[in-house]
TrEMBL record:
Gene3D superfamilies: 1.10.1580.10, P-loop containing nucleotide triphosphate hydrolases
UniProt record, GO biological process: ribosome biogenesis
Protein name stated in the entry: Nucleolar GTP-binding protein 2
Disordered as annotated region, ranges: 1-28, 477-565
Residue ranges of coiled coil: none
Lineage: superkingdom: Eukaryota
Biased composition (Basic and acidic residues): 1-18, 481-490
Length: 565
C-alpha cells in the first residue's frame, strides 16, 4: 500500500470503481490482481497487431493468431500410473488358482472384471505378440540365423574376448571384493583381531539378507556423526547381557582418534537382567578402558541414576566456561538409550519400544539448565565376522522380519540353561531345537491347518522372549588379569570364575537377602526366582533443575583413575 499522493489517488479511483458503496479495498484478500486478470493483461503484453497506414491489420497480434501452436505431450510419470508388476511365482499361482476354479463345475466366477484376466489370456495366445516372439526365439529361428556367420541376431556384448581375459576379470573382481571386506573390517575396528582368524585365501562370505544390515545405513551413520559432533560427553550404552557384542569399537576408535577432547563413558544397561556379580565383573573389566557405570533403566525403579547424574554434573563443572554441555547416547539398537533418557528425566520424553530401530532421528532433551541429552538411533558397525545368528541374538533385527526363525533356536538353547527354559515355558524332555519348538507349539495350541505345529510362530516368540529378558541369559565376564590393575584380585577371581555365575547363562538360585527362618514361603519364592535384582534405594534429591536425582551413593560407578576418560 502506498502512501501520500499515490495512495490518495488509488482510494479516489477505487471509490468510483468498487462496490458502489464507496468501500475501498484494503490489503488482503483480492487486493492484488486476480489470476484471470493477470492472464488477460499478459496476453496484451505480448504485442499488438501491426497495421498499415490505412489502419488495416498486416500482422495479427500473438493472441489473434490462428496458427496452431506446436505442442507435445508433457513428459510426466503420471501417464504411467496404474502400471503393476507381478512376479513370476505370483502369476503362476494366480493362473493355477484360476484354472482350478474354472474347472470346478460348482463354482462360478463373479466380478471377473476385478481380476487381472489379461494375465491368463496371454498364455492362451490371445495376445499373440509375446507368443509370436517366443516362437521365433525358441522354435522357429534356425541355428544359422542365430549363431552362424550369417546370424541376424546381435551378438551379446562381453567385456572380454577370450577365456583367459574372463578369468583375469574374475580375479580382479575378487580382489576388489577382498578390498571391500578389508575396509569393512577396518571400519568395524576388528582388523587386528581378524588378522589371526582371517579366513583362508579364496573363501567367500555368502550374501546376507538385507534385514541383517539394519543400523548400518548411511542415514543412521550420519545421525550418529551428528550426535558425536554435537556432544561433549558421549555415553556408549551396552547391554549388560552381552557387553562385548554390543560394543561399537569403530566408534570408540573414531572418538579416540578424531575427537579425543570428547569424554566417552560406558553405561552397562539392563543390569537387572544379570546377576550382580556378573554386572560388577563387567564394570571392573570395562572400566579399565573407559569409565563404566552399571544402570537399570526404569522410571519407577531405576539403578545407577544418581551416579550418572553426579557424573554428568562433574563433566558440566569441568566445562564451567560453557553455557551448557551436551551428552550424546550412542550404542546398538535396543540397548535402552531412550529408556535411560526417560529414566533421567523421570518421564517419557523419548519413544521406547521392545523392537530395534524405534529411534529414527536424533533428538535433543533438556535434563537441566546446563545439561542437554541427545538420543541417537541405534548403530551397528559393519563386521563381516558377525554371523546372522550373532546379529539376530544381539537384538538388532526385528524378529517378525526374519525368515525361517527356527534355524536360530538352537543358538538360543545353547546360550541359555535348560532348566531356565523349562521353568519359563514349562516344557521338558527335548533333545533338539525342532523338538523343543514342537513341544512348545503343542502345549500352547499353536497349530496350523491339518494339526501341524506352527514352528515359525513359536520360534519368533522364543526369540522375542530371549531378547526381551524373559529367558535369563548372559555372557560371563572374562577372567581378570591377575597382574593388571590395583584391584583385590582374590575376590575378583573368586567372584568371576568360581561362582555359579561364572558359567555361561547360569543364574544364582538365591537372592542376596536376609530371610526370616519362619518365612518359608518367601524363601521358596526367592529360590524360585532366578534373577538377582540389583536394588537401589532412591534418595530423592530436590533439584532446582528439571530432574530429581535418585541417589544410589556409589552404586553403579567404577572409575579407574588410570583409564583415559
Ligand atoms: N529389563 C530391562 N529392560 C530395559 C532396560 N532398559 C531398556 N529396556 C527395554 O529395552 C527395550 C528397548 O529400549 P529403548 O530405550 O527403546 O532402546 P533404544 O536403545 O533407544 O533402541 P533404538 O530406538 O532401537 O535405538 C525396551 O523394551 C525397554 O523397556 C533395563 O534396564 N532393563
Amino acid at each position: 500500500m502506498g502512501t501520500g499522493k499515490k495512495e490518495a489517488a488509488r482510494r479516489e479511483r477505487q471509490k468510483k470503481t468498487s462496490d458502489g458503496m464507496g468501500n475501498v479495498r484494503v490489503k488482503g484478500e483480492n487486493f492484488y490482481r486476480t489470476a484471470k486478470k493477470a492472464k488477460t493483461l499478459n496476453m496484451f503484453k505480448e504485442g499488438k497487431a501491426q497495421r498499415d497506414s490505412s489502419g488495416k491489420i498486416t500482422k495479427a497480434a500473438a493472441y489473434q493468431s490462428r496458427d496452431i501452436p506446436q505442442a507435445r505431450v508433457e513428459p510426466n510419470r503420471k501417464w504411467f500410473e496404474n502400471t503393476r508388476v507381478i512376479s513370476q511365482d505370483a502369476l503362476q499361482s494366480f493362473r493355477a488358482a484360476m484354472a482350478e476354479r474354472a474347472s470346478d463345475p460348482y463354482s462360478v466366477l463373479l466380478k471377473t472384471n476385478k481380476l487381472p484376466m489379461s494375465l491368463i489370456r496371454d498364455s492362451q495366445g490371445k495376445n499373440g505378440l509375446k507368443e509370436h516372439q517366443a516362437k521365433i526365439a525358441v522354435e522357429a529361428a534356425p541355428f544359422g540365423d542365430t549363431f552362424g556367420p550369417k546370424s541376424q541376431r546381435k551378438r551379446v556384448k562381453l567385456a572380454v574376448s577370450s577365456l583367459e581375459d574372463l578369468a583375469g576379470e574374475t580375479e580382479k573382481m575378487q580382489d576388489t571384493y577382498q578390498d571391500r571386506l578389508e575396509q569393512a573390517r577396518y571400519l568395524s575396528g576388528t582388523l587386528v583381531e581378524t588378522d589371526q582368524t582371517a579366513p583362508d585365501e579364496g573363501t567367500l562370505t555368502t550374501a546376507r539378507e538385507p534385514i541383517f544390515s539394519k543400523g548400518q545405513s548411511k542415514r543412521i551413520w550420519n545421525e550418529l556423526y551428528k550426535v558425536i559432533d554435537s556432544s561433549d560427553v558421549v555415553i556408549h550404552v551396552l547391554d549388560a547381557r552381552d557387553p562385548l557384542g554390543t560394543r561399537c569399537r569403530s566408534v570408540e576408535k573414531y572418538i579416540r582418534e578424531e575427537a579425543s577432547h570428547k569424554h566417552l563413558i560406558f553405561v552397562l544397561n539392563k543390569c537387572d537382567l544379570v546377576p550382580t556379580r556378573v554386572a560388577a565383573a563387567w564394570v571392573r573389566t570395562l572400566s579399565r578402558e573407559y569409565p563404566t557405570l552399571a544402570f537399570h533403566a526404569s522410571i519407577t525403579n531405576s539403578f545407577g541414576k544418581g551416579s550418572l547424574i553426579q557424573l554428568l554434573r562433574q563433566f558440566s563443572s569441568l566445562h564451567s566456561e560453557r553455557k551448557q554441555i551436551s551428552v550424546g547416547f550412542i550404542g546398538y539398537p535396543n540397548t535402552g538409550k531412550s529408556s535411560i533418557i526417560n529414566t533421567l528425566r523421570k518421564k517419557k520424553v523419548c519413544q521406547v519400544a521392545p523392537i530395534p530401530g524405534e529411534t529414527k532421528v536424533w533428538q535433543y532433551i533438556t535434563l537441566m539448565k546446563r545439561i542437554y541429552l541427545i538420543d541417537c538411533p541405534g548403530v551397528v558397525p559393519p563386521n563381516q565376522n558377525d554371523t546372522e545368528q550373532d546379529i539376530l541374538l544381539r537384538g538388532v533385527v526385528r524378529v517378525e522380519n526374519v525368515e525361517h526363525p527356527e534355524q536360530y533356536i538352537q543358538a538360543v538353547l545353547d546360550k541359555t540353561k535348560a532348566h531356565h527354559i523349562e521353568r519359563t515355558y514349562d516344557v521338558r524332555g527335548w533333545t533338539k531345537a525342532t523338538e523343543f519348538l514342537e513341544l512348545l507349539a503343542r502345549k500352547g495350541g499353536r497349530l496350523l491347518k491339518g494339526g501341524e505345529a506352527d514352528l515359525d510362530g513359536v520360534a519368533k516368540m522364543v526369540l522375542n522372549d530371549f531378547m526381551r529378558g524373559k529367558i535369563p541369559w548372559f555372557t560371563p565376564a572374562p577372567a581378570p588379569d591377575i597382574k593388571e590393575g590395583g584391584h583385590n584380585q582374590e575376590n575378583e577371581t573368586d567372584e568371576v570364575i568360581t561362582g555359579r555365575a561364572g558359567r555361561l547363562g547360569e543364574m544364582p538360585r538365591k537372592r542376596k537377602r536376609d530371610y526370616n527362618d519362619e518365612d518359608e514361603e518367601e524363601k521358596e519364592a526367592a529360590e524360585e526366582g532366578d534373577e538377582e535384582v540389583v536394588e537401589e534405594e532412591e534418595d530423592e534429591d530436590e533439584d532446582e533443575e528439571k530432574t530429581e536425582d535418585g541417589d544410589d551413593s556409589n552404586g553403579g560407578i567404577a572409575i579407574n583413575p588410570e583409564a583415559k576418560p
